[in-house]
């Protein structure tokens, strides 16, 4: 199961990245990406209905962690499509529109606070009710969407997980659009990243691989965007940069190694002064 899922997800992400390299956030590109994700979900559903699961743990892992990653991409791109096609003209009206969209995300968070806490804390005591098919409990934060879904390929809460993941990305997107309108200026007190973009990409992927944010339930794109905003830098195609790092014959983690060396040297110097 894991092999099929990992290969399918990697293929989908590569295809999406190819579209993102070719053009900016155009409506046509978003439409094409949505079709890719729909096709991917169809293939995954066909595989699951034919193969099934070896045990309950495998089923929970799929509906709690694996399926939501793919569905979150569909929710995200569909949301961006709607936002961009409905966006009004004029900076003042557009700013008001984006703020309104951010408030929708906040309402979803507030209305699902208990489940956010459960999911973000990596709890598992309700997993059999939330992420096993046919085990729904109407008292446990059910969405109307669940009753209309195909229960052969859905649980009571896998869509809600996907929504949480997607909303994080949508929030970043809207904040970025607002920042572009506001033309945010870099103050004298701002931190400027003065190492290379490759070095920052290496650091970001290390933090992502370690699961340093949200118990590992955060997409690399969100982490990269946060660093870009924090240091007023554009990483561009950071995935391509990562591929170049992987292709290094020696010293793949050059920047991280130098960080370790610098920190150890600093510690040794302070020990010598004591």
Describe what this molecule looks like in 3D.
- The chain has 274 residues and is mainly alpha-helical.
- It folds into two domains: 1-184, no CATH class; 187-274, no CATH class.
- The chain has helices at residues 2-22, 27-51, 56-86, 91-111, 113-120, 127-130, 144-148, 158-182, 197-210, 220-231, 238-246, 254-273.
- Helix 2 (27-51) runs antiparallel to helix 3, helix 3 (56-86) packs parallel to helix 8 and helix 9 packs across helix 11 (238-246).
- The radius of gyration is 21 Å and the shape is globular.
- 21% of the residues are buried.
- Residues 184-188 have low confidence and may be disordered.
- This is RteC protein.
Key attributes of the depicted protein:
274 residues; mainly alpha; 12 helices; 0% strand; coiled coil; Tet_reg_excision_RteC; RteC protein
Secondary-structure blueprint:
Blueprint: H1 2-22, H2 27-51, H3 56-86, H4 91-111, H5 113-120, H6 127-130, H7 144-148, H8 158-182, H9 197-210, H10 220-231, H11 238-246, H12 254-273
Protein name: RteC protein
Coiled coil: 2-29
Keywords: Coiled coil
Assembly level: single chain
Percentage of residues in DSSP E strands: under 5%
What radius of gyration results from the CA coordinates? 21 Å
Mean pLDDT: 86
Main pleated sheet: none
Pfam families: RteC (PF09357)
Coiled coil: 2-29
InterPro entries: Tet_reg_excision_RteC (IPR018534)
Organism: Epilithonimonas bovis DSM 19482
